[in-house]
Amino acid sequence: MSRAGKGAAVDFTESDEHRAIRDAVREIGAKYGHAYFTRCTTEGRFTDELWADIFAAGFGGVNLPERYGGGGGGLIEMAIVIEELAAQGCPLLFLIVGGMCGPIIGDFGTDAQRQEWLPGIAGGHTKMAFAITEADAGSNAAAITTTAVRDGDQWVINGAKQFITGMDVADAVLVVTRTGTDAEGRGKLSLFIVDTAAAGLEFRPIPMEIKAPDRQFSVFFDNVTVPASRLIGGAPDQGMTQVFSGLNPERVNVAAQATGLGRYFLDKAVAYARQREVWTVPIGAHQGVSHPLAEVKVQLDLARLMGSKAAWLFDRRADGVGEAASVAKLAAADAALFALDQCVQVHGGNAFASEYGIGDLWGLTRLMRSAPVSREMVLNYVAQHSLGLPRSY
Ligand SMILES: Cc1cc2nc3c(=O)[nH]c(=O)nc-3n(C[C@H](O)[C@H](O)[C@H](O)COP(=O)(O)OP(=O)(O)OC[C@H]3O[C@@H](n4cnc5c(N)ncnc54)[C@H](O)[C@@H]3O)c2cc1C
């Protein structure tokens, strides 16, 4: 898989390679469909079969280097995979988490860490959760209080995290800890890879209003000891850069998932509007029905364009990726919610019947306005960094 260098001309036509990925992933997603996703949710189990198929075909690790068993692509390719699965009604949250941990280890890990962890992540055999959120810190990562303290050639971790996705299926978790405090009182951060089975680590499921096979957990660290070899990059206090570098692909992948979900709702709405007749013509002939759907298409196309730009910038490690990724996430989350609402409206009462596979996706779709970064925090970023306005907090 080739990636043009920095400054390469932008081409808005989709390459044959990208189209082939899109088609192949769509085919795998369609084989399972939303009914499978719902069944896994109801049975309280992970999407093992779909996960295995996606990785066996080489798409789960498409963004990781070939020398570690990945596809040699980048965020653009990963976003295509995530979007197409969501468009088939299979929005896999945990694929986003994995799509974030791998690049952090790839970019900032030591050689030994890359060799130990990337082949498993690229092959789908090793699952890694990501833990930054804490009850009292919230959106302010610099205020986290989970600490890692050096003890000889080991580190001892204490604290708690919340809303951590997929702890029940993960082999390890990439944990953001505080290893110091700077002159302004902000945490100096360090990232550690911790086995989910480590002594002193416990996790409990949080009952959620999101219907998805991926579950969220409270995680507790009580004197969890890890060897120094588990500190990402080998040196402490480097975590802020590592975290922010990892959050950009996460935002792009969430944008891709939201765009895919938006397409899922739009496809359903259009199909229904074409065939449903209550007077003498299909309801899609009424402009009160067709215009909102056309507007959904416009919003999704715009969001997708911004997501592609953000992925393109990230793959070149170019400036401006932070803002582009955040804006793409905001735009895609808004577009997906708008798509869901119009899909509900077009379906009349049927939207609320379980068999139509619409209402159950509200929680997951709405989530994308609040996480992994909220709408307000994106607007704060744009107001301060792009517009030069003062900060209120
Ligand atoms: C389903 C799900 C899965 C998740 N998975 C993970 C995971 O795998 N790993 C992980 O680490 N975390 C995960 N999270 C956590 C998620 O990233 C956070 O919930 C999110 O970052 C928001 O943080 P918070 O909930 O603490 O909200 P808060 O920070 O408490 O914010 C609450 C509200 O206040 C607003 N607000 C706060 N500060 C400001 C300000 N300065 N200006 C304007 N408005 C402000 C916010 O925009 C928001 O609307 C998950 C959450 C959910 C619900």
Q: What descriptive keywords fit this protein?
A:
393 residues, alpha+beta, four-stranded antiparallel beta sheet, three-stranded mixed beta sheet, 10 helices, binds flavin-adenine dinucleotide
Short description, anyone?
The protein has 393 residues and is α+β, with helices and mostly antiparallel strands. 49% of the residues lie in helices and 15% in strands.
Could you characterize what this model shows?
The protein is globular and about 80 Å long. The chain is 49% helix and 15% strand. It has helices spanning 16-43, 48-56, 75-87, 93-108, 111-123, 239-275, 287-315, 321-346, 362-370, 375-386, and strands spanning 128-131, 147-151, 154-165, 172-181, 187-195, 201-205, 216-227. It has ten helices and seven strands. It has a four-stranded antiparallel beta sheet with strand order 2-3-7-6, with helices on one face. Strands 1-4-5 form a three-stranded mixed beta sheet, covered by helices on one side. It has 393 residues and is an alpha+beta fold. The chain binds flavin-adenine dinucleotide. Flavin-adenine dinucleotide is lined by residues 97, 130-133, 138-139, 163-165, 210, 216, 367, 370-374, 376-377, 380, 393.
Secondary structure tally: strands: 7
The distinct bound ligands, ions and cofactors come out as: flavin-adenine dinucleotide
3D shape: globular
Number of helices: 10
User: What's the gyration radius in Å?
Assistant: 21 Å
Beginning-to-end CA distance, first to last residue: 44 Å
Helix content: 40-55%
Main sheet overview: 4 strands, antiparallel
Mean pLDDT: 95
* Strand-residue proportion: 5-15%
Stretches with pLDDT under 50, minimum 5 residues:
none
- Strand numbers in spatial order across the main sheet: 2-3-7-6
User: Could you say which structural class the secondary elements and strand pairing correspond to?
Assistant: alpha+beta
Order of helical and strand elements? HHHHHEEEEEEEHHHHH
